[in-house]
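User: Last request for today: this protein with guanine, please.
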Amino acid sequence: MILDGKKEAALLREEIKKEILEIKKKTNQSPGLSVILIGDFAPSQIYVKNKEKNSKEVGITSEVIKYSKEVKESEILEKIEELNNNNSVSGILVQLPLPAHISKEKIINAIKPSKDVDGFHPMNVGNLSSGYKAIIPCTPLGCLLLIKKAEKNLTGKHAVIIGRSNLNGKPIAQLLLKEDCTVSIVHSKTKDLKSECQKADILIAAVGVANLVKGDWVKKDSIIIDVGINKVADKIVGDVDFEQVKNKVKAITPVPGGVGPMTIACLLKNTLDCFKAR
Ligand code: GUN
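Assistant: Here's the final one, the structure of the complex with guanine:
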């Protein structure tokens, strides 16, 4: 089973679009997303353009606020404060990475937790890990929705996550714990990566190493979620060697066309949820 993220994301966007249309009919209001983009890092420009296009297509009012890479940190903090207090803004996203002179920690902490559509604010991180209501980071949420397409009941499954980042590995672990999985996080210092991965009923690769996971790393009939986006000789490949793995497992996400499209669809979902919560 190939977990078609493109198709699932399109279905999710369709649901979101319908709901926004209903809300607009009833209230004459619609969700608003403000994206702050600093500098000229090419991948960020592409991601933000995609986020804007997808937002508009489902009826979210979207604005991109651009700054040069020399902008002062205080100017960004002032803008965030203005957006925090603007009632027509449901969600705020500051595209990462930031220039070295701007503190990621300060910027993330400045965003009002109820408008933090990335789910990066410590309040949302803490609420998620405590099992309380939280805004869930977009890529982890996308991963969970795809896993659920392959297997509804995750109770007792052994999930192994390769990668311990705040962006992906840690929140994915929290989400799967909530689903009653047994969760292991493995990383670059893990002693025997391969044998740990062989134990996984659900294997999530979020480490950024092209084709790391080989055919003999995976258990028969397992579910494989590939979060990696790596460029190899002008081709985009994941962290999993798709050709070696695909025929051994129950379900696998391709790269591209797996987790990637789900991330943006989940951003739209988070923006709508923030609007509804207000
Ligand atoms: N840069 C790469 N991925 C992301 C993301 O999910 N959110 C933000 N804000 N920046 C990113």
